[in-house]
Write a structure and sequence with these properties.
Elements: H1 2-13, E1 24-28, E2 31-34, E3 39-47, E4 52-60, E5 66-73, E6 80-82, E7 90-96, E8 110-118, E9 125-131, E10 138-142, E11 149-151, E12 153-157, E13 159-163, E14 170-176, E15 186-193, E16 199-204, E17 207-209, E18 213-217, E19 220-227, E20 233-241, E21 248-255, E22 265-271, E23 278-280, E24 297-304, E25 310-317, E26 331-332, E27 339-341, E28 348-351, E29 360-362, E30 366-373, E31 379-387, E32 401-403, E33 409-412, E34 418-421, E35 429-432, E36 436-443, E37 449-458, E38 471-473, E39 479-482, E40 488-491, E41 499-502, E42 506-513, E43 519-528, E44 541-543, E45 549-552, E46 558-561, E47 569-572, E48 576-583, E49 589-598, E50 605-606, E51 612-613, E52 619-620, E53 623-624, E54 628-633, E55 647-648, E56 654-662, E57 665-675, E58 681-682, E59 686-688, E60 694-695, E61 698-699, E62 703-706, E63 722-723, E64 729-736, E65 742-751, H2 755-758, E66 764-765, E67 787-792, E68 798-803, E69 815-816, E70 819-820, E71 824-832, E72 835-843
Parallel strand pairs: 1-12, 2-13, 26-31, 32-37, 38-43, 44-49, 51-57, 59-65, 66-72
Antiparallel strand pairs: 1-3, 2-14, 3-8, 4-7, 4-9, 4-10, 5-8, 6-7, 9-13, 10-11, 14-15, 15-18, 16-17, 16-19, 19-20, 21-22, 23-24, 24-25, 27-29, 28-30, 30-31, 33-35, 34-36, 36-37, 39-41, 40-42, 42-43, 45-47, 46-48, 48-49, 50-53, 52-55, 54-56, 56-57, 58-61, 60-63, 62-64, 64-65, 67-68, 67-71, ...
GO molecular function: carbohydrate binding
Domain Cohesin: 26-133
Keywords: Signal
């Protein structure tokens, strides 16, 4: 059986395992002293047995000192011990969890007992050691995922068997060290074999005891003395209990979150603790990768070693902090100057100029920006305006100046802080009287300089203009004033031409300049003779046939008509243009003319080729030959009554009269617009039950076209197609009659899923012969197709029934077998394929 278990475990060991080291398993064999020839059971105990799924190793000893006898079961089931090499001092030990889930045992648990016979002589000793051959040491625990196994570190604590003590006592010492620094959970257990009574005495750091197992021990040396009943020493030993070094965080550093990933990290150094050590920041224990790729925030850290010893710390990961780049405020430089921009110390620089240097020098105005990147990949940027001063000197001394004889030129340099003229003067304004080039250098409040120059020339001599003597003109007449040849002209009227035409009395002045810019002037006075002459022959006019027109000029000294007449008045009877020139007593003259045209007789012309319409259409009525039009419209179907081309939209044939007028008469025309009459129309709306067919109808056409929709008709060009809509639908039809007119109409097909919603349920009849409500009648019943009617008395007997009720003249009239039924309450059931109506029926007499 042991060999079988060992073979099965060997197969499992070769399954895939993770290389992640997560914990340490300690297996311990005790130190013991036995008498030669005696038998001893060595307990194999464990610490850190946490979710262990399999283990294998070998144990060796000196066969001249002890001989393997047997194995006794401990507190772990299915431990297999292969003893086929025990004669040579080797055991193969293996175990696996048959369920593959891993087992956890308390520290100090004895997993098995090995029984040996002490065959050596007193003074002999042998280590009982955990070795890697012939069966290789392999320990695994269960991983997080099914089928995953994680390799575990193995910490062997070898035992030592000494042959001594002729007293015959056998003592196995099983110490358990303190698990964590500062704890008091150490333990020493004794397995004592002795055939007589004995006593145990312990001494240690502030400690005494007489128990075979002592617990709650701190670190230190514990001295053991076992005595017989006479207090003779049977066995003495000193056992060292140790404690691990405390877990101490010696350094904890953090890295702020990167601007690229948004994540930061922490790193630490520590001393003490037993490997493997886990770190937990709230996501469960893990290795140091727990401290990588952390979001910004505060973290509490718990550090745990293989013994479960813990310490805690805390840290915070700062969020990304973009660089605070500051290029400063606006820089003002003068032309030709240079300024330097320095953003600070970073990893990279990207200037708007394309430069990647940490410092740039600028001499041109503009907006400059830089984007920098720090060690965390965070970027920051800033921009700065470099500009010339707003009041940058722009010296403008004006255009070249011409000095006329005896003149001085005033030169003004503008408003600045300082001035230096080429003459040596330092004032804003200077006076010069000699031709030449004058230069000026100025400095503004920003210390920037500007320069300018002006050319002062000799203007030369100028001859004054001569506008002639003062003049008198007739009202309405004009005179041309001429100055002669100069470079520029400036009349008192604002004109700048060489000549000026004037027709109004007044004083007219002129200033001229020559090529050198020198000026001269002259003035002339224009007077008017008498009042203005007013001649008006009136507006242009027409002469109708046989008419004459009298033309009168008014009172003047002389008259000269274009007809040759010199009279004040003339009479004309022919069309043409008649002109007249008159003079007054001062000899001033004026003229006027009038155009006389021949008026034509009014004759209206109708320009329409036809005046026929289909119903619903409109037509433009168009007449011509007059200046104005007035229409008479008794049908109120014209768009306007005072234009030549109104739109007519009559419903039926209509007559219209139009009167056209002009200066030489009027004319009247009567028009009739014929509207075709049509009999084209669609049939009545209808109602059907679900799944039935509707008969559509249209009349009065020579062709038909039914518009398709979700439920098309059987034949779109038929006057009587059929349709089977699933719900209520309107069908549109276009009908063309023999006159070519198109009439559009529609048919509604109502699909009644519930007859009771479309048929009025009758609940009373009064069969008294007054022809009012004498019989049971249902409106719209024919729209639901085949039906069946049954009438019952109050005992449920059928007193009337008929299939396809109201398909003929037969009606229920309150009789049964020819006899009148008594007044009272009855019931009927009206059934259709799509539903039924149940209703009480009262017969009143």
């Amino acid at each position: 059986m042991r060999n079988f278990v060992l073979i099965l475990l060997t197969a499992i060991v070769w399954a895939p395992f993770s290389n992640t080291q997560a914990q340490t398993l300690t297996l311990s064999m005790p130190d013991t002293t036995v008498a030669p020839g005696s038998t001893i059971n060595l307990p194999m105990s464990c610490r850190g047995f946490d979710e262990i799924v399999s283990m294998q190793f070998s144990i060796s000893w000196d066969t001249t000192v002890i001989v393997y006898q047997d194995t006794e079961k401990g507190q772990l089931d299915n431990v297999a011990v292969g003893d086929f090499q025990a004669g040579s001092g080797v055991l193969r030990v293996s175990w696996f969890d048959v369920e593959g889930m891993g087992q956890t045992l308390p520290d100090g648990t004895v997993i098995t007992y090995l029984q040996f016979l002490a065959r050596g002589a007193e003074g002999d000793s042998t280590p009982v050691s955990f070795v890697d051959s012939p069966l290789q040491i392999q320990i695994h625990r269960a991983g997080e995922n099914p089928g995953e196994f994680i390799e575990v570190e193995f910490n062997p604590e070898h035992g030592l068997v000494k042959l001594a003590n002729p007293s015959g006592i056998s003592v196995a010492e099983i110490p358990t060290n303190v698990s964590c620094a500062g704890a008091a959970d150490g333990q020493i257990e004794l397995n004592i074999t002795y055939d007589d009574e004995f006593s145990v005495s312990w001494t240690g750091p502030d400690f005494t005891s007489s128990e075979t197992t002592i617990t709650d021990l701190g670190p230190g040396t514990y001295n053991l003395r076992i005595s017989d009943t006479d207090d003779n020493p049977l066995y003495e030993s000193a056992i060292e209990i140790t404690e691990p070094e405390a877990i101490t965080v010696t350094s904890l550093e953090t890295q702020s979150a990167s601007c690229i990933s948004g994540l930061g990290s922490a790193s630490l150094s520590l001393t003490g603790g037993m490997a493997p050590i886990t770190y937990d920041i709230g996501n469960g224990p893990g290795d140091l990768s727990q401290l990588e790729e952390l979001n910004p925030g505060a973290y509490a850290l718990i550090i745990t070693d293989a013994n479960g010893c813990t310490t805690s710390s805390s840290f915070s990961i700062a969020g990304p902090t973009p660089p605070d780049v500051d290029l400063g405020s606006t820089r003002v430089i003068c032309p030709g100057e240079t300024t330097t921009l320095t953003p600070g110390t970073y990893e990279t620089y990207n200037w708007s100029t394309g430069s990647t240097s940490p410092v740039i020098a600028l001499s041109n105005p503009g907006t400059y920006s830089v984007t920098v990147t720090d060690q965390q990949g965070c970027q920051g940027s800033d921009e700065i305006l470099v500009q010339f001063p707003d009041d940058l000197p722009e010296v403008d001394l004006g255009p070249a100046v011409a000095l006329c004889p005896g003149e001085m030129a005033t030169l003004d340099g503008g408003t600045y802080n300082s001035y230096l003229w080429s003459t040596g003067e330092t004032t804003q304004v200077i006076q010069v009287g000699e031709p030449g080039t004058y230069r000026l250098t100025v400095t503004n409040s920003s210390g920037c300089e500007g320069t300018g120059s002006i050319q002062v020339q000799t203007g030369g001599e100028i001859t004054p203009p001569d506008l002639g003597p003062d003049l008198e003109i007739c009202p309405g007449q004009s005179v041309t004033l001429s100055a002669g040849a100069y470079v520029t002209y400036n009349w008192s009227t604002g004109a700048s031409s060489q000549t000026l035409v004037v027709s109004e009395p007044g004083t007219y002045g002129l200033t001229v300049t020559n090529a050198g810019g020198c000026e001269a002037s002259d003035v002339v006075v224009i007077r008017s003779e008498g009042e203005p002459i007013n001649l008006d022959l009136g507006p242009d006019t027409q002469l109708c046939a046989g008419e004459t027109l009298s033309l009168s000029a008014g009172s003047f000294s002389t008259y000269n008509w274009s007809t040759g007449s010199t009279a004040a008045n003339i009479v004309v009877s022919e069309p043409g243009t008649y002109a007249l020139t008159v003079t007054n007593a001062n000899g001033c003259e004026t003229s006027d003319a009038i155009a006389v045209t021949a008026g034509e007789e009014v004759q209206l012309l109708v320009e329409n080729d036809f005046l026929d319409l289909c119903p619903g259409e409109s037509i433009e009525l168009l007449v011509s030959g007059a200046e104005s039009y007035v229409w008479t419209d008794t049908s109120n179907s014209l768009s306007a009554l005072d234009i030549a081309n109104p739109m007519a939209s009559p419903d039926t044939t209509a007559g219209y009269r139009v009167i056209g007028s002009s200066a030489c008469g009027s004319d009247t025309v009567d028009l009739e617009v014929y509207v075709y009459q049509t009999m084209a129309m669609a049939g009545p709306d209808t109602c059907i039950g679900p799944g039935t067919e509707a008969q559509l109808m249209a009349f009065g056409g020579v062709s038909y076209f039914w518009e398709s929709n979700r439920y098309p008709v059987s034949d779109p060009t038929s006057p009587m197609p059929t349709a089977s809509p699933e719900d209520s639908t309107t069908y549109l039809v276009a009908i063309t009659d023999f006159q070519g007119c198109v009439v559009r109409d529609s048919v509604l097909v109502l699909v009644a899923n519930d007859p009771e919603g479309a048929i009025t349920a009758v609940n009373m009849i009064t069969p008294n012969g007054d022809e009012k409500n004498d019989v049971l009648y249902f409106p719209n019943i024919s729209k639901f197709g085949q039906n069946s009617l049954k009438v019952f008395n109050r005992w449920g007997n059928v007193i009337y029934q008929k299939v396809n009720y109201q398909s003929d003249d037969e009606r229920f009239d309150g009789t049964y077998n020819g006899q009148q039924l008594p007044a009272g309450t009855y019931y009927y059931l009206l059934s259709f394929r799509s539903g039924e109506i149940k209703q009480k029926l009262t017969i009143l007499r």
